[in-house]
Task: inverse folding
């Protein structure tokens, strides 16, 4: 059983509780205009991946366990991000099982754009979902991410129904996700899901600009500047006043 991993970051502190190891898995079915990991989007079959990208479950566990002392001391763990980690569902299930056997806390950072069968088979495996909600208007969602949000919203409702541990992540992208209408729509959606109470707002930044240049990829956010902190704080207070536990940053 092999997985394709584009990067492993140690000592991350924004992808779940405590100090974490973040494993970036290759391949994503979306193509968000503001993606900060454009190198992770293209799908790569395991047989075509170079040896430096291909990991067996035991090889990846070895990397994870190197950090276990920091994870244990900080109540941290490992986060599977991407790309879309649930695209490599079988490998992900195996590595989550191996982590559970070692009592290591796990989180999946997902776009939610995952077929229902794979989603249901993985739903019980991690301790935490970091679940992205981007745009509620489906026409705009298709424009800015390349895909419909119907599956994403359906999978989120499933997590709510089964009372899974979820933190919603909302990227605050100027003029796209941070508009009054979209924030209002997201708030209304989440108010219908009583078991989802935590929201992490992610301010837009331009640190991926260099990657787009290096990879010679079109950067659709070229020239868009980060929003003022005051605007982001105002959006946060809308969610806080609606009763959510919110955080802003990262
Ligand atoms: S879902 Fe995440 S990894 Fe995939 S394109 Fe969008 S921002 Fe990038």
Result:
């Amino acid at each position: 059983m092999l997985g394709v991993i584009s990067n492993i970051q140690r000592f991350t502190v924004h992808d779940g509780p405590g100090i974490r190891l973040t494993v970036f898995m290759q391949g994503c079915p979306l193509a968000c205009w503001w993606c900060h990991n454009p190198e992770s989007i293209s799908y790569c079959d395991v047989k075509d991946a170079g040896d430096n990208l291909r990991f067996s479950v035991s090889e990846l566990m070895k990397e994870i366990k190197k950090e276990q002392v920091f994870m244990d001391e900080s109540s941290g763990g490992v986060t599977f991000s991407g790309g879309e980690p649930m695209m490599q569902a079988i490998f992900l299930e195996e590595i989550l099982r191996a982590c559970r056997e070692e009592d290591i806390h796990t989180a999946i950072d997902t776009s939610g754009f995952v077929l229902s069968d794979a989603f249901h088979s993985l739903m019980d495996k991690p301790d935490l979902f970091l679940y992205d909600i981007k745009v509620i208007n489906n026409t705009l969602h298709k424009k800015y991410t390349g895909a419909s949000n119907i599956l994403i919203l359906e999978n989120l409702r499933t997590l709510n129904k089964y009372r899974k541990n979820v933190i919603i992540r909302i990227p605050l992208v100027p003029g796209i996700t941070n508009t009054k209408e979209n924030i209002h729509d997201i708030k209304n959606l989440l108010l219908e899901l009583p078991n989802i109470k935590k929201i992490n707002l992610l301010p837009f930044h331009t640190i991926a600009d260099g990657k787009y240049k290096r990879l010679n990829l079109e950067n659709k956010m070229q020239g868009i500047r980060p929003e003022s902190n005051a605007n982001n704080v105002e959006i946060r207070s809308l969610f806080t006043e609606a009763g959510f536990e919110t955080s802003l940053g990262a």
